Fold:
Amino acid sequence: MKIEKILKKNKDKFRILLDNGEVLDIYEDVIINNKLFEGSIIDINVYDKLIIENSLQEKYNECVKYINIRLRSEKEIRDYLVKKDTEEKDIDLIIDKLKNNTLINDELFCKSFINDKWKGK
Structure:
């Protein structure tokens, strides 16, 4: 399969039009990580990899939105992903990425939780 066009869909997603008529909505990070551009040839292995990475990115983005409401512990994020039927190996990957981007920090979460409870008295 060959990428015919890459069109911006919204803030962080692009629509990829393939020469076989198929259309994929893929996150920008996935496109960059896989070095995709118009004219790129995608075999079935790359195609499957794109679908998996895009699904992981979707769940990662959902976690970021969940964390933006208030700080979350690693356990809260794990429970959230389990409710979304995420496989354990994928949960570990998403948690690692959130930690690497300093979006999960249980020590900070505990300090914030204690501080909020202390002020609430």
The first helix runs from residue 28 to 33.
